Amino acid sequence: MSSPVSPSSSEELFDRARALMPGGVNSPVRAFGSVGGTPRFMVSATGPYITDSEGREYVDLVCSWGPALVGHSHPDVLAAVHAAVDNGLSFGASTPAEAELAQLVMDRVPGVKRLRMVSTGTEATMTAIRLARGYTGRNLVIKFAGCYHGHLDGLLASAGSGLATLALPGSAGVTEATAAETLVLPYNDVAAVEKAFAEHGANIAAVITEAAPANMGVVTPDEGFNAALSRITSAHGALLILDEVLTGFRTGPGGYWGLTGAQEGWTPDLFTFGKVIGGGMPVAALGGRADVMDYLAPLGPVYQAGTLSGNPIAMAAGVATLKAATAEVYATVDARSAELSAAVSAALEAAGVDHSIQRAGSLFSVAFGTSATGVHNYEQAQAQESFRYKPFFHSMLDAGVYLPPSVFEAWFLSGAHDDAAMNRIYDALPAAAKAAAEA
Ligand code: PMP
């Protein structure tokens, strides 16, 4: 029975949710497991702000984990969604907007010759892996420790020790047979990749990598790392899958590839996209070489499908978001990211907190106690003084700034983060830095 009076405080809402859903959430990090305390239940968001069930407004540095690049509730995006809703929610048939969104993607990422829309990043990477296996007729996949590609069984494998270690399951419920088909290598280690190919090259279907890792905190790919992956995979007849679910259309119109591959002269065989491509609606996609993509059904033998794929409301949001992501938006996000990371660093320094700012384009995160080495791989990311983040996070939250509830996540900005929003963050930083120092 539902209670007669609707709960409204986050505590009450979380109590109710915990009785109804595992951990009270539908995606684990929302439960504030690593920072503790009660997760805030959000009810609305506009521009750079998000508001909880008790009417408290926060400057949002999560931005829905990336999608809200142009700011929450951007008027063009809302208008496009409202117009699409009026025409019906879902048709289970092709709609004109799908090609419109595909064209906008290809204009920005020319290596995408064909695109398949799906609903989540997990589906995009899962399909890319199946496609790579179908296309090459090989079984093994290389991923890097600390890279997240969604919750498909084969890619939940975490760090294997040493080089080319056959991974053990990283999650209960993943069979050893599945995990054994993923080779987990240390990030930024070209020699490890070369060794894996020397040993298993004839059976490696693909290397999948985040274009710039942002799920172990942000880690910058060493100069030439992604280019080396492109060179090695193509020399061995394997595919390179560049996962731009998080970075795509965020670190610039051409994603992180646009900042690197476009200049360096390499292009992955497949890209995966998500987040910004749907502007907050469930859209993701995979795309790339036409000969590879045409291996997908109905043309090819690799099956993939989705009842709600290319949903008209979601497509409308994606089209409007990419159109609203102007050069000015990217300039704002870049500038705000530079200002904010410098301000965070200055505050931590003033409080005597050892740290490094980890950066990839406009994405950044803070890694505590790592100034001597920075963070170049998962081992270093895990070795940081992560306990300092909890008090830092809660001090910011109390001051009205909503940070990602884990030190291993990037901080997300939008084109709507104006001076007023930024000043609220800057005002909160000294106390948060002091709290981190005292941890
Ligand atoms: N790849 C990357 C790089 C991601 O960051 C994520 C999600 N954060 C995914 C894939 C999975 O996307 P989704 O949560 O939409 O399944």
UniProtKB/TrEMBL annotation:
<comment type="similarity">
    <text>Belongs to the class-III pyridoxal-phosphate-dependent aminotransferase family. HemL subfamily.</text>
</comment>
<dbReference type="Pfam" id="PF00202">
    <property type="entry name" value="Aminotran_3"/>
</dbReference>
<keyword id="KW-0963">Cytoplasm</keyword>
<keyword id="KW-0663">Pyridoxal phosphate</keyword>
<protein>
    <recommendedName>
        <fullName>Glutamate-1-semialdehyde 2,1-aminomutase</fullName>
        <ecNumber>5.4.3.8</ecNumber>
    </recommendedName>
</protein>
<feature type="modified residue" description="N6-(pyridoxal phosphate)lysine">
    <location>
        <position position="275"/>
    </location>
</feature>
<dbReference type="InterPro" id="IPR015422">
    <property type="entry name" value="PyrdxlP-dep_Trfase_small"/>
</dbReference>
<comment type="subunit">
    <text>Homodimer.</text>
</comment>
<dbReference type="InterPro" id="IPR005814">
    <property type="entry name" value="Aminotrans_3"/>
</dbReference>
<keyword id="KW-0627">Porphyrin biosynthesis</keyword>
<dbReference type="InterPro" id="IPR015424">
    <property type="entry name" value="PyrdxlP-dep_Trfase"/>
</dbReference>
<comment type="pathway">
    <text>Porphyrin-containing compound metabolism; protoporphyrin-IX biosynthesis; 5-aminolevulinate from L-glutamyl-tRNA(Glu): step 2/2.</text>
</comment>
<dbReference type="InterPro" id="IPR015421">
    <property type="entry name" value="PyrdxlP-dep_Trfase_major"/>
</dbReference>
<dbReference type="InterPro" id="IPR004639">
    <property type="entry name" value="4pyrrol_synth_GluAld_NH2Trfase"/>
</dbReference>
<keyword id="KW-0413">Isomerase</keyword>
<dbReference type="GO" id="GO:0042286">
    <property type="term" value="F:glutamate-1-semialdehyde 2,1-aminomutase activity"/>
</dbReference>
<dbReference type="InterPro" id="IPR049704">
    <property type="entry name" value="Aminotrans_3_PPA_site"/>
</dbReference>
